[in-house]
Amino acid sequence: MNGFTKLKTPMDIVGLFLWRKRVFLAVTILVMACVTAFTFTRTPLYSSTSQVMIDVAEKSPISPAAPSAPNQADGVVGTQLKAAGSRPVAAAVVDALGLSGRADWGGNLADPADVRRERAIDALMSRTTVSRDEAAPVLMFEALSKDQAEAAEIANAMAGQFIDLGVRSRQTLAGREAGVLNRQLARLGNSVRDADAALAGYRASHGLAGGASAMGTAVDQQTAALAADMATAQSEAAQAQALASAARTRAASGHSDSVAEVMASPVMANLREQRETLATKAAEIHIRYGPEHPETARIDGQLANIDAAIAREAARITRGLEGSADAASSRAASIAGELNALKAQQSENARTSVGADSLARIADARRTMYVQLAQSASVTTQERELDLAPGHLIVAATPATQPIYPKKSMILSIGAITALASGVLAVLLVEALDSRIRRPDEIDERLGVRHLSSIGYLTNRMLRKAQHGAEPWDYVLARPMSAFAESLRSVRARLLLARSPGIGQVICITSSVSNESKSVLSASLARAMALSGDRVILIDCDLRRNGLAGLLAVQPIVGLIEVLNGDVHADDAIVSDVAHGLDIMPLTEAQFSPKDMFSGGAMADLLTYLRRHYDFIVMDTPPTLIVDDAVTLATLADKVLLAVRWGTTRMEALRLTIARLRDSGADVFGIVLTGVSEGANLALAHNDPHYYLTTSHGYHRN
Asked: Where are the domains of the chain?
């Protein structure tokens, strides 16, 4: 399973982890062991917390009655939070508890005192935190220490020193403010006195001794009274003028007696009564005596005298009405003059009172400011003499019963997850970097060479059960109906289909490097062919290893080298195997000779001779990338089989081997996977026949 491209199904993933279970378990156990060791070797730390309620109802001494802003509380708590976490508070705690004299806080006791103090302050600030409660104006002082009691002691000292420094800071600030306020109070007192003096001088210069407001009130009252009198006089004058005008008009028309005042006059009433009497008497005389009688003339004369008296009285009354009208007009004019004089005085008073009022307002304003500032100065003086703490302790720190570090259960839980994740990553990493071949479809897809079969790995237990002291090639004879033998027959069947009829087929079996079960494949395949009824000869062409020596019961006297050198005939070097139908042309011993034994015509002639007598000629050749003889022999063979060790041979080596063989003109017929593990069925593709060979039951006898 090379890379992640082959993880196509859940079975592929399961197979990967089953195959890499050792890597997975090793990494998981190692990481978990490291986490466990880390957890149980940590020095425990204890935490204690004290709480201080902050006084947010602060007022400025300059304006104690000023309304509080909506965010005043947050601002006050934020300011106190910065102060509580400041270096001066930490320094006060170090001095109060004598931490600079402790080696675990101040370091080397031989260092200067100021150095140890600064070091202890830094250590304290790194082991303490100050935070605020989100719902209430509360500061929380948390201290960390290896000792429970020390953590509580430091937390309480932090809260106490914060309160003490706050008190001293407020007292100092109040003293400064009191000084500023007293100086301002002195200046403002002088200003008030100057304003009062200016007002008094102005009043004196304008004759406002009684006060502009009092004088203005008297003039206003007189003006109002005269205005009312003038209205009455003007009304009476208008009425008198109307009566006089009416009287003149009626008098001019001869009807003065119709004027109401004339008619109401007692004199006029008496005169009219006399006339009526005379008129009655005159009428009788005229009737009695006639118009020419002297008595008649006398009575007429009396009537004329009474009429003249009436006219004179009417004229007198009319003149009286005109006089009354003139008098009323004169009185109204007089009142109007007085009223105008008062209005002029009122205007003058208004002008002078504006200046006086302005000066009075300035004096009053300065006097009000003076009073307020005096009150503030008094409050500030009192604050300087009081202990005004920024808050008060509501919860004292107590020694903790359980450490906050390490949290063993949490660390171990996270460690377990990390260990599992590390195991998974290790498997994936190893798989990504592993180019060893384990899946047949990799051969077809990436190399362009057909996969012929997968040969299972024979354990020692399997070999002992089959035959005591047996080799893998003996298993074919001992268990001819096993899955192992069936895999070999699958290779034979593919070769049989590719063989030309009537002539023996030369098969070259090689590998990329050593230890790929090449010789086991050669011998086992040859025996499987012989069991199938083929005439087979197995030639040991691996001169430097002599890998087939274990097949022979006795040491041979002559072999392949002697035949190629022409010392003996081929038939003399052939040894019969225990498997009927299989002959072997062995090596007498391993040969390390610089002489090229296969490139001449001797090997080609030998193969030509053997073709006439055998169905298959199987050559066990050396590894292609190690000994070049394999390439030479491959060019003489009809088909080349590559033995590839399952889970061992790398893709790069196999690619080089195939390229070298193809460059020489050899026919690379296919690849046989050797040594496939018993537990490899989950790592194999389902299109590999070996998967079904290892999972089916009843068809093989292993």
From this structure: 10-42+406-433, 46-56+70-173+388-395, 212-385, 443-695
